[in-house]
Design brief:
Layout (H helix, E strand, L loop, with lengths): L1 H5 L7 E4 H19 L2 E7 L4 E4 L1 H18 L5 E9 L6 E10 L22 H4 L7 H11 L3 E7 L3 E11 L16 H4 L3 E5 L3 H13 L3 E5 L2 H10 L7 E4 L8 H9 L4 H4 L2 E6 L4 H9 L4 E4 L4 H13 L8
Parallel strand pairs: 2-4, 8-9, 8-10, 10-11, 11-12
Antiparallel strand pairs: 1-3, 4-5, 5-7, 6-7
Helix pairs in contact: 2-3, 2-7, 3-5, 8-9
Length: 324
């Protein structure tokens, strides 16, 4: 939020296929929705399927909206994601409009004008039993503004909510695309490799565990950095193959936890491979991760191809080596 307000955040565009990008979003949430008993569907209607966009910022926008739909929709409910292209008056540009509709608990009309204000929450975590900071929607609004788009919301308490995000994208050609194809993972590579996931956010943890388990990993979770260090201390030296470390955690953050692990008397435990997996995705964050002793850095929202490429490299790299 601070970087957005300081004006230091820039749009970094690359050519993408609308269908591939939509597939990524859909695949991240489909199993979670199904397990909760939510019917998650989607549809796409675009004339220009290839456009330039900033995938990291777009994922941040839509994963926030879909996360809320997941959290505030009960079993038996529905979530629908609809991407369509609307007429554009700007030559060379396609206007993509994404509407995400849920049948969740909804919001009151009195609260809607305050939705994009920092720390605004209609229900606190004690009342709703749902954790949150009140910063997700303000960040979404500022990112949409940064990308010259608009966001509208309609909601009715007890009925559901509908978010509509409209963004202009410069039209690309298929030949402009970088390979964003789905990731094919060799199950033998990661089978029975044990990962300690240090992640305080329940939803983020659920997404990561689902992805890693499907790839063959055995995943255990620590709810903060302090617990992560404790679990490393109690385990045998070769019990965990690597640690995926969030940075912003209560009690002990990821940097502090990494320094504590690197200071352990048991050399084998101290040299366990640690990868930052965090929304702190700027170059200075990557440098800080390496400075405190981490072996690599994965940005959230997770790019599956980049993540599995890094995990593959780290697992075959000698201890204490940094993997870019």
């Amino acid at each position: 939020m601070a970087r957005i307000e300081k004006g230091t955040l820039e749009v970094d565009e690359t050519a993408w296929s609308a269908e591939q990008f939509n597939d990524t979003l859909y695949s991240i949430f489909f199993d979670m929705m199904r397990q909760k008993g939510i019917d998650f569907t989607r549809s796409i209607e675009v004339e220009n399927p290839y456009v330039y966009c900033d995938p990291i910022k777009l994922r941040e926008v839509f994963t926030n909206i879909l996360s809320n739909a997941y959290k505030y929709t009960n079993a038996g409910g529905k979530v629908h994601m609809y991407l369509r292209e609307i007429p554009s008056e700007k030559e060379g540009y396609a206007y993509y409009q994404t509407t995400i509709t849920d049948t969740g608990i909804g919001m009151s009309e009195d609260f809607l004008p305050h939705l994009f204000e920092e720390f605004a929450r209609e229900h606190n975590s004690t009342e709703s039993k749902i954790e949150g900071t009140g910063l997700g929607m303000p960040i979404v609004k500022r990112l949409v503004d940064l990308m010259d788009g608009t966001i509208d919301v309609k909601s009715k308490k007890g009925v559901g909510t509908s978010f509509t995000v409209t963004l202009p994208h410069k039209i690309a050609d298929k030949s402009d695309l970088i390979d964003h194809e789905g990731v094919v993972v060799d199950p033998k590579m990661f089978k029975d490799k044990r990962v300690l996931l240090a992640e305080d956010n329940d939803l983020n943890a659920e997404i990561a565990i689902e992805i890693l388990s499907e790839a063959g990993f055995i995943v255990e979770r620590a709810v903060d950095g302090e617990k992560c260090v404790e679990m490393i201390k109690k385990a045998k030296a070769d019990y965990y193959d690597l640690v995926l470390m969030d940075i912003q955690m209560p009690n002990m953050n990821g940097y502090e936890a990494t320094k504590a692990i690197r200071s352990l008397e048991n050399k084998d435990k101290a040299e366990i491979k640690i990868i930052a997996m965090t929304a702190n995705a700027f170059e200075e964050d990557k440098r800080e991760a390496i400075r405190v002793g981490m072996n690599g850095h994965i940005a959230k929202p997770i790019n599956l191809k980049a993540m599995f490429k890094l995990l593959s490299a780290v697992l075959i790299t000698p201890k204490n080596k940094i993997v870019n």
